[in-house]
């Protein structure tokens, strides 16, 4: 994803602490999912946990903030190791503070929540139990969910995706991390984000530079890299399906310019990961009537998203050969739209040939291929954590998803037009004010053998 993941609570700003506080109880909401085979589906009582980057972090001896505005407390956090020892990560009031609510098989995440402080966005993970993330092997399987994006306007992203995080949030590998998955630690993605407050049991204080365009975020010397499979990056206008491989395996620490990604625009492609990915955005690929309000996939109402991961030998350990997508709405199965771009063969799935042709036709960076392409992505898909979030974009106003991007190129140039939103849209200050009541709902998550998780009525 192109984002910095610099989503924030405006007074108790996102922090990744490693000690555990006791001022607020941590109770994980239950979210029912289903596992499916050809003979039927079985309900599983999973849970969700809020990412550590959103939580209040305070001194272990009291309630003094370790991080206020976009700066660290110099006394509590003079360096990475001392800060991790001095700061406690506390429990969360999921609905009251962060706008996250689960009921049965449905998870709703509000964009802006106003309580004692103003919270913007949230990132959550699916858990197998109170101390472990749910792990997925997606090869030769399909992943299905229902989504309501009707209240997501330009500049917002309701993102459901997989990353190669550790099952325990890094607790075993890094003894300084006392919180682990129970408190949402261990995040990583293909942008190798440097706005994370704690990584691998250490704080990210050293080299911390407050952002010039946000009073609440910044970047440190370190980032956290891993393979990322963007199942769903979307609002009511546009959507994209995007694999992002890395040459590394699992969560990996990076330093300064070697992190590349969104936090290092001058060295965007210098990391172990591919920050761009090989994206399948129907609008960008020539079908402007497929997805949106009143279109073939009508975003005015709920619909089902099915993503299939096809292997060359039809096994759960084989080489990933294709990623396929279909939808179900009003009882009708809708196949992914076909490409309609000069230089790209007509197709409706992501394959190595499609990715090669897309990069050439659009003149995009070829990091997807050099970082291992679908074959490397497939290896990562054997051990992934599910992420569900909503966010706005301080780096590029989400124009890469729903407008013309880059804005320095004509909209008529191949690959530039990605949606109908104006190039002036998506400014965080604007969307956080005018679209504060927006939200996304994910529901009816199912995982199983191919063609087992959906049906037409």
From TrEMBL:
<dbReference type="GO" id="GO:0016162">
    <property type="term" value="F:cellulose 1,4-beta-cellobiosidase activity"/>
</dbReference>
<dbReference type="InterPro" id="IPR013320">
    <property type="entry name" value="ConA-like_dom_sf"/>
</dbReference>
<dbReference type="InterPro" id="IPR037019">
    <property type="entry name" value="Glyco_hydro_7_sf"/>
</dbReference>
<keyword id="KW-0732">Signal</keyword>
<keyword id="KW-0378">Hydrolase</keyword>
<keyword id="KW-0624">Polysaccharide degradation</keyword>
<dbReference type="Pfam" id="PF00840">
    <property type="entry name" value="Glyco_hydro_7"/>
</dbReference>
<keyword id="KW-0326">Glycosidase</keyword>
<feature type="region of interest" description="Disordered">
    <location>
        <begin position="410"/>
        <end position="434"/>
    </location>
</feature>
<feature type="compositionally biased region" description="Polar residues">
    <location>
        <begin position="421"/>
        <end position="434"/>
    </location>
</feature>
<feature type="signal peptide">
    <location>
        <begin position="1"/>
        <end position="17"/>
    </location>
</feature>
<keyword id="KW-0136">Cellulose degradation</keyword>
<dbReference type="GO" id="GO:0030245">
    <property type="term" value="P:cellulose catabolic process"/>
</dbReference>
<dbReference type="InterPro" id="IPR001722">
    <property type="entry name" value="Glyco_hydro_7"/>
</dbReference>
<comment type="similarity">
    <text>Belongs to the glycosyl hydrolase 7 (cellulase C) family.</text>
</comment>
<protein>
    <recommendedName>
        <fullName>Glucanase</fullName>
        <ecNumber>3.2.1.-</ecNumber>
    </recommendedName>
</protein>
<keyword id="KW-0119">Carbohydrate metabolism</keyword>
């Amino acid at each position: 994803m192109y984002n910095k993941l610099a989503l924030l609570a405006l007074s108790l700003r996102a922090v990744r602490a490693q000690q555990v506080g006791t001022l607020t109880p941590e109770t994980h909401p239950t979210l029912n999912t289903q596992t499916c085979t050809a003979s039927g589906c079985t309900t599983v009582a999973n849970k969700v946990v809020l990412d550590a980057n959103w939580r209040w972090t305070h001194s272990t001896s009291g309630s003094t903030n370790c991080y206020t505005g976009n700066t660290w407390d110099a006394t509590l956090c003079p360096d990475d190791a001392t800060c991790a020892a001095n700061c406690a990560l506390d429990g969360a009031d999921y609905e009251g503070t962060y706008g996250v609510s689960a009921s049965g098989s449905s998870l709703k995440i509000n964009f802006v929540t106003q309580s004692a402080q103003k919270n913007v966005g949230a990132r959550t993970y699916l858990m197998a139990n109170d101390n472990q993330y749910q792990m997925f092997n997606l090869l030769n399987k399909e992943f299905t969910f229902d989504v309501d994006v009707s209240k997501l306007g330009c500049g917002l992203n309701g993102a459901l995706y997989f990353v190669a995080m550790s099952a325990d949030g890094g607790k075993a590998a890094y003894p300084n991390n006392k919180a682990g998955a129970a408190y949402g630690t261990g995040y990583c993605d293909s942008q190798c984000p440097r706005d994370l407050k704690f990584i691998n049991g250490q704080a990210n204080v050293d080299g911390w530079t407050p952002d010039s365009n946000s009073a609440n975020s910044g970047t440190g010397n370190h980032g956290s890299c891993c393979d990322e499979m963007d199942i769903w990056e979307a609002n009511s206008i546009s959507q994209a399906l995007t694999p992002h491989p890395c040459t590394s395996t699992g969560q990996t620490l990076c330093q300064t310019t070697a992190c590349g990604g969104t936090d290092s625009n001058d060295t965007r492609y210098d990391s172990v990961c591919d920050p761009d990915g090989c994206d399948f955005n129907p609008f960008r690929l020539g079908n402007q009537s497929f997805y949106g309000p009143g279109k073939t996939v009508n975003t005015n109402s709920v619909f089902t998203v099915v993503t299939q991961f096809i292997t060359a030998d039809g096994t759960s350990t084989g080489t990933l050969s294709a990623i396929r997508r279909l939808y179900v709405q009003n009882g009708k199965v809708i196949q992914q739209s076909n490409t309609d771009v000069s230089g790209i063969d007509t197709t409706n799935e992501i394959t190595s040939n499609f990715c090669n042709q897309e990069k050439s036709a659009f003149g995009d960076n070829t990091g997807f291929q050099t970082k291992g392409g679908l074959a490397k992505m497939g290896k990562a898909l054997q051990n992934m954590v599910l992420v569900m979030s909503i966010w706005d974009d301080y780096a590029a106003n989400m124009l890469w998803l729903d407008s013309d991007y880059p804005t320095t190129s004509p909209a008529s140039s191949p690959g530039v037009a990605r949606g109908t939103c104006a190039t002036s849209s998506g400014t965080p200050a604007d969307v956080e004010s005018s679209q504060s009541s927006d939200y996304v709902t994910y529901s009816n998550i199912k995982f199983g053998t191919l063609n087992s998780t959906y049906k037409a009525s």
